[in-house]
Structures are given as C-alpha cells and as structure tokens.
Amino acid sequence: MTGRTAAADEWIRYRRTARHDGLVAALSLLYETLCDGAPPHGPGGHVVAPAGFVGADTGDVMATMTVEDGAIVASRSRTAPPSVSRTPWAAWALGTTCLRFGLSERLLDAVLAHLGGRTVGDARLLHQQMVKGGVAEAVIEQLEIETMLAGAAPGDLDDGVLSALNAQITRTDRMLLRLLGAVSFLADGPGQVARVSELIADVYFGPAPAGEHGGAA
What we know:
mainly alpha, three-stranded antiparallel sheet, two-stranded antiparallel ribbon, 7 helices, disordered C terminus
C-alpha cells in the first residue's frame, strides 16, 4: 500500500463507520481523529457535534436531536469566530462528506430492507415499476458520488466540488425518504438521521438549493 493509498483509506473509515455503526459513532470518530481543540464552526458560527463532546455545547444550544445510536447537539457560538478552530478545513470537509455519504448508503440499506418485505397483491413492492425506478435513480446518484470520492485525499477536491457532492447527497437522501413513506417521519427512524445529516451539510457547506432538490421529503 502506497503512502497516498494509505492516506486515502483513512477517509473510508468515516464512510464505513457511518454505514455500519450509525451517525453518532461516525461523527464521534470524525471529532476524535480530526478536531484539534474546539470543534470547527461553520461560517455562521454553528456546530453540530455528538452530545457530551468537549466544546459541543459551549455556545447557545439550538437543538438536541436523538437518533438511533445516541444524541446530537446543534449549537451556535456568539463569542468564538470560525477562524479560531485549528482543525484543518480540507480534512474536515472531506471527512464530513465521506461521513454523509456513508449515512446515505445506510439509508439505502434501510429502504431496501423496508421495501423488500412488502408486497402488493402477489408481487413484491420492490418489483413495482415506479419503486424500482426510484431505487435505481438513487443508486445511480450514489455511484456518481462514490466515483468522485474514490481515492480522494484532503485538498484533492475543492470547496465547490465538495459543496456540489453534499448537495447531491442531500438530493439522494430525499429520494430515499420518499421511498420510505411514513416510516421516514418517525423521530427515531432513518428519516431523523437524514435530517441531521442535511443539517451538517447546511452548517458547513450551506443549504442545498431548494429548486434543485424539490423541497424536503
């Protein structure tokens, strides 16, 4: 394994942990391995961090959100400007994007498990034309994202590319939530994780364009 391959492999850990262990586990790993001191703030002074992480709730706590494997705190600092953080932005931006992609893959797994056990008449729901087409569209989006992230190291993808990838992840998650139907509205279900993931993107990359993504599911 070359040095560059080993470096790129570091970022896969965030994706794999998000997919297999969940949001809090992956976000905790990201903070433990990348944060140097205080958590990094977004341009608006916001932070999204695992509950209990040092510095996660030093500002005004705006929301505490419970997900399947723990709790996430969203806060806003009115005293520390974003430039105070010593966490390297390029590493944080790539790590956050890989984490969100892993969560999107986890959401696809949940959709397939949910739809796989349902039938309409004598036919499996997954075999219905509209459902099959919706799943295929989401998978294609994920394949495009995976191709862009493959082998990437911090600094390889500029801020514009990473922002576009995060918007694409948000768009894909919204497609998947529509396939989950009412299940996506459950506070402790996969829809809640997708909404926190979107909040992370909003904080660090800006909101996804409403027109492009057709509104929240």
